[in-house]
Amino acid sequence: EPDVTIVSGLKDTVVFEGDDVTFRCQVSHENARDVEWKLQDVALQNNEMNEISVEKGKIHTLTLRKVTEQDIGTVAFRVGPHTSTA
């Protein structure tokens, strides 16, 4: 299996309470496995508050819905040994 690397990392974002925010990270290969999103070191699952998806096979997205003050912190995307944070 080829080593999947991060081609385009996360960007810091400022958002108002109650708004949605989307983070994108592009990887080098499609169908990357061993992918994880975290917020403040807590692994995120796909649910009504966190939408996790993959666009065009290589662009991994995380949308946090209706953010609150408790959502302030570091968002991290990890694929294999590579990590990007914002």
Automatic annotation (TrEMBL):
Signal sequence bounds: none
One Pfam entry name: I-set
Entry keyword Oxidoreductase: no
SUPFAM superfamilies linked: Immunoglobulin
A GO CC term assigned to this protein in UniProt: cytoplasm
InterPro entries given in the database record: Ig-like_dom (IPR007110), Ig-like_dom_sf (IPR036179), Ig-like_fold (IPR013783), Ig/MHC_CS (IPR003006), Ig_I-set (IPR013098), Obscurin/Obscurin-like_Reg (IPR052385)
Top-rank taxon: Eukaryota
Subcellular location: Cytoplasm
Residue intervals of the Ig-like domain: 2-86
Main subcellular location: cytoplasm
PROSITE patterns in the cross-refs: IG_LIKE (PS50835), IG_MHC (PS00290)
Keywords: Cytoplasm, Disulfide bond, Phosphoprotein
PANTHER family in UniProt: OBSCURIN (PTHR35971:SF4), SI:DKEY-31G6.6 (PTHR35971)
Protein known as: OBSCN protein
Organism: Balaeniceps rex (Shoebill)
Name of encoding gene: Obscn_3
